[in-house]
């Protein structure tokens, strides 16, 4: 370790010296060097492990060694072994799709690894009878730790001596108000000292600390659930059972078409047989759908980024479309965390409102006003501070009041009502008691409405004093013996301007919104009413301390609750689990560390841009500019992705269906495979791949309904069967009519051209069905790709590479006949059979 310079040592000495003289006297010496060394050797130091739950190797293995990659990779290797590299171009999709997956998860890993609730800085501890500054990770168990204003508590500790300490625990509990702690009480790492001072004994360090435990739970990797990916994986699993035996049968059949195994090896025609078999296998795998899903998610994420919305997991774009329950954190989501001046409730009718407002502005006009002072200045911009203030006592969280002395001899105080009302004039008289009760009742009503209330009072002892009699005013810092309440200063949390309209949008879309907060239930309910959380109906509120522990019971209670207050971090997570038990797709918004566990548990975690780093790290979506109004755009984008992907997924599954059917027909009839892998690459790109990509980007706000795979299969079966039958009929009938010998390479090549043209035409028919309505740009899209497919036959390079050509003479007539038959088969399978089934079903129901 490098030695510190003399300048550094001097600076450290001065810091320690100044800190030591500034701190109150401590009776006990604290840990000595030997005790510290024992704890360091025992590992009882404030160091937190930083690794996430997935290593780089695990991420690469998870994305490389997939069922999809295995099938495509083996097929590609087999084709390359035959020397027919042009038929192996389909393998490039492995690189692209795997790369997207690895990059996305590595980004998530880096985010999780950086996750930290605690701010690393130097802290003051009391050791060997003196105070010294040490780094965050040098704190040990049982250390005597000074908690000073402006510092974050670095480790869990029990207060030994309190000097007016107030903590902001909103990062941990969600409670937006500062909290006072007395001696013997425990304070948790992650909270921030707002004011005052305390000496505390460290009771938990490192991974045992409260903040570290929250971080560890938040770091657990959780893959976002995707209906699209699950549907694709289901298809792949089914096709695995079909592909392996069918591949063996195809190879055996294709070897038979070239004279058997021995002849195929002697003549080299085994290569042709293997390539033909691979054409059947590859066609059954919806490889384009896997790639298109990843690309579409990525494009949606890019579009959302332009709207100040960061998507950290691509699959979460789809989840947006399925959300039907939205849990909202109050602070940072509905409110922006600040307060605003609401009104001045006059208590003394003898005083003019204008005069009281002037006094209020003057009392609040400190050099560095607190949040209330700023809110008053913003709420009463027409009133400017006067020059009549002679002295002032600034606001202090320890005192909970501020005061100003004026040149006319009066003294005005503003602060917590419970403190100032204790000094009410003639406090024992019936009139004073009655006034006190009336004011207490009014304060209770305002508090229940979600307001924060302060009292503005005048010192009655100074009314007859001379202006010079307050010479010791600023030195006493004590409340006078007789105060007269003049007005209540009513402040409310500042509600986001977009909150009401955003909640209205979610109500119209059938998304159930609940506000879940660590604040007082009455306060949260009042704010929920202001933003019309439940429309015209009054929100139903509940104290989370009354919630049942059983998940099923909790799920039942949540059906009848709109607002929950006093919610603990673990309860927020349990609430999400209870909603999951009722099959809800849950989104959760938040900005504090107390929200991180629930965001992790939810199907979709949404963090505000001004949220704690830990919260943003575990969220799938971050609203960078913290605007709640972006959420409808986010959900709409998710619906676009899901609705359009469902539309185009049918195209890929159609290919799977007809490829399986054709392969079975080829095996049963022992004919050469009717097209090559390069043919399906050409046809698939023009009738499935590129059109699907463009259709997936089209506007679409249809709400997603469960049953993605069922609907896709219902569309794909009739279209796939029609296409498969058309190609098989062509492969069976045309050679017989034309007198072709399929053992002859020229005749086989000509048959494959005819079958490819039939397959292309059927692909255009299916595309037309998917792209409906065609009286729009979709109709133009269809014509463009139909024309592109035909034009390619006349371009020498394309025709040669893909072994395609335009038929002529009797072959052209046979092709036109095959196309006519195919059109009839398509109408029969796609229109007539479903129509007949519907009629049959209706008659059966009427019986």
UniProtKB/TrEMBL annotation:
Chief localization: membrane
Name its cellular compartments: Cell membrane
Pfam families referenced in this protein's UniProt entry, alphabetically: E1-E2_ATPase, Hydrolase
Superkingdom per UniProt: Bacteria
What Gene Ontology molecular-function terms does this entry list?
Answer: ATP binding; ATP hydrolysis activity
Q: Which InterPro entries match?
A: ATPase_P-typ_cyto_dom_N, ATPase_P-typ_P_site, ATPase_P-typ_TM_dom_sf, ATPase_P-typ_transduc_dom_A_sf, ATPase_P-type_domA, HAD-like_sf, HAD_sf, P_typ_ATPase
Q: Which GO terms describe its cellular component?
A: plasma membrane
Which Gene3D superfamilies does the record cross-reference, listed alphabetically? Calcium-transporting ATPase, cytoplasmic domain N, Calcium-transporting ATPase, cytoplasmic transduction domain A, Calcium-transporting ATPase, transmembrane domain, HAD superfamily/HAD-like
Topology relative to the membrane? Multi-pass membrane protein
Q: What EC number(s) would the UniProt record show?
A: 3.6.3.8
Protein keywords: Hydrolase, Membrane, Translocase, Transmembrane, Transmembrane helix
* Stretch list, region Disordered: 1-26
- Recorded source organism is Bifidobacterium psychraerophilum
Q: Where are the transmembrane segments?
A: 59-82, 235-253, 273-299, 648-673, 679-700, 712-734, 749-768, 780-799, 811-837
Domain P-type ATPase A, chain residue ranges per copy: 124-217
Protein name stated in the entry: HAD superfamily ATPase
């Amino acid at each position: 370790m490098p030695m510190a310079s003399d300048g550094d040592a001097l600076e450290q000495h001065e810091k320690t010296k100044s800190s030591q003289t500034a701190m109150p006297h401590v009776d006990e010496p604290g840990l000595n060097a030997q005790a510290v060394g024992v704890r360091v050797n025992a590992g009882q130091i404030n160091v937190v492990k930083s690794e996430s739950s997935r290593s780089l190797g695990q991420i690469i293995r998870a994305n490389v060694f997939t069922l999809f990659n295995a099938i495509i990779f083996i097929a590609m290797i087999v084709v390359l072994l035959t020397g027919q590299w042009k038929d192996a171009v389909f393998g490039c999709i492995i690189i692209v799709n795997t790369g997207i997956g690895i990059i996305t998860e590595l980004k998530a890993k880096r985010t999780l690894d950086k996750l930290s609730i605690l701010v690393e800085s130097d802290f003051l501890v009391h050791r060997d009878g003196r105070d010294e500054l040490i780094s965050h990770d040098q704190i040990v168990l049982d250390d005597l730790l000074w908690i000073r204003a402006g510092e974050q508590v670095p480790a869990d500790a029990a207060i030994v001596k309190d000097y007016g300490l107030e903590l902001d625990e909103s990062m941990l509990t969600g409670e937006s108000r500062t909290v006072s702690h007395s001696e013997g009480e425990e304070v948790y790492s992650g909270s921030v000292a707002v004011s005052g001072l305390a000496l505390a004994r460290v009771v938990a360090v490192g991974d045992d600390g409260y903040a570290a435990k929250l971080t560890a739970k938040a770091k657990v990797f959780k893959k976002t659930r995707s209906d699209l990916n699950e549907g694709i994986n289901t298809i792949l699993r089914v096709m695995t059972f079909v592909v392996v035996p069918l591949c063996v049968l195809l190879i055996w059949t294709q070897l038979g078409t070239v004279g058997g195994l021995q002849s195929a090896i002697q003549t080299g025609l085994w290569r042709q047989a293997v390539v033909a078999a691979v054409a059947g296998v590859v066609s059954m795998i919806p490889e384009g759908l896997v790639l298109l899903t990843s690309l579409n998610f990525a494009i949606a994420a890019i579009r959302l980024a332009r709207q100040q919305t960061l998507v950290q997991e691509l699959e979460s774009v789809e989840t947006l479309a399925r959300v039907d329950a939205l849990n909202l954190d109050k602070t940072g989501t509905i409110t922006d965390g600040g307060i605003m001046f609401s009104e001045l409730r006059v208590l003394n009718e003898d005083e003019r409102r204008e005069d009281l407002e002037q006094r209020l502005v003057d009392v609040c006009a400190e050099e560095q006003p607190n949040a209330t002072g700023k809110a008053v200045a913003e709420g009463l911009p027409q009133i400017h501070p006067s020059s009549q203030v002679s002295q002032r006592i600034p606001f202090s969280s320890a005192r909970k009041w501020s005061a100003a002395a004026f040149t006319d001899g009066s003294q005005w105080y503003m602060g917590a009502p419970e403190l100032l009302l204790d000094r009410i004039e003639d406090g024992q008289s019936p009139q004073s008691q009655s006034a006190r009760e009336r004011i207490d009742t009014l304060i209770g009503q305002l508090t229940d409405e979600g307001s924060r209330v302060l009292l503005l009072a005048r010192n009655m002892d100074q009314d007859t004093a001379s202006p010079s009699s307050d010479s010791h005013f600023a030195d006493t810092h004590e409340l006078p013996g007789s105060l007269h309440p003049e007005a209540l200063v009513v402040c409310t949390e500042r509600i986001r301007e977009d909150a009401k309209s955003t909640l209205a949008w979610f109500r119209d879309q059938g998304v159930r919104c609940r506000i879940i907060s660590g604040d007082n239930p009455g306060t949260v309910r009042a704010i929920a009413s202001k933003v019309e959380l439940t429309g015209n109906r009054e929100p139903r509120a509940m104290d989370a301390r009354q919630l049942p522990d059983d998940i099923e019971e909790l799920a039942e209670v949540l059906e009848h609750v709109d607002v929950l207050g006093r919610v603990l971090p673990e309860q927020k997570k349990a609430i999400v689990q209870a909603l999951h038990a009722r099959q809800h797709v849950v989104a959760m918004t938040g900005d504090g560390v107390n929200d991180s566990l629930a965001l992790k548990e939810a199907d979709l975690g949404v963090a505000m841009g001004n949220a704690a780093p830990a919260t943003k790290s575990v969220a799938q979506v971050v609203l960078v500019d913290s605007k709640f109004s972006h959420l409808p755009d986010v959900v709409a984008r998710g619906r676009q992705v899901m609705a359009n992907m469902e539309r185009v997924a049918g195209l890929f599954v159609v290919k799977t269906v007809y490829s399986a059917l054709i392969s079975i027909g080829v095996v049963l009839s022992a004919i050469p495979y009717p097209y090559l892998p390069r043919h399906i690459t050409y046809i698939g790109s023009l009738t499935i791949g590129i059109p699907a990509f463009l259709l997936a980007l089209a506007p679409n706000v249809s709400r997603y309904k469960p049953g993605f795979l069922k609907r896709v299969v219902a569309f794909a079966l009739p279209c796939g069967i029609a296409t498969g039958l058309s190609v098989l009929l062509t492969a069976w009938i045309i050679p017989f009519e034309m007198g072709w010998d399929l053992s002859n390479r020229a005749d086989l090549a000509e048959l494959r051209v005819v079958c490819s043209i039939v397959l292309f035409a059927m692909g255009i028919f299916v595309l037309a069905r998917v792209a409906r309505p065609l009286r729009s740009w979709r109709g133009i899209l269809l014509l463009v790709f139909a024309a592109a497919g035909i034009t390619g036959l006349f371009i020498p390079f394309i025709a040669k590479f893909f072994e395609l050509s335009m038929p002529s003479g009797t072959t052209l007539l046979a092709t036109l006949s095959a196309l006519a038959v195919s059109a009839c088969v398509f109408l029969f399978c796609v229109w007539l059979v479903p129509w007949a089934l519907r009629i049959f079903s209706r008659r059966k129901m009427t019986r």
